[in-house]
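WARN retry 2 of 3 for item q-0093 after timeout on previous attempt; input resubmitted unchanged.
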Amino acid sequence: MPSDSGDERVRHEPEARRFTQSSGGALAVLEYREIDPSTVEYHHTYVPPALRGRGIASRLAAHALRYALDKGLTVIPSCPFVAAFIRKHPEYAAVLGR
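OK item q-0093 returned
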């Protein structure tokens, strides 16, 4: 569970199907759906206004995409931020299809 004490690490919360980062009591999230055992849809990224401009959404996306690569998952990036992140970081393009 994320801490409200300024914990800057990205955490995977599989039971909630999300990746999170907490800072100063605010919680940023990247949410996903499991489409099937080998496919996830990254559908929503939210960073509270107080945390914006710190690269948190990029850290969430990178962490989530590394997770998918490590697990051999295909990603459907329906979240516009995640889709744009993949376009800017071609090293993650492999998650788009296997």
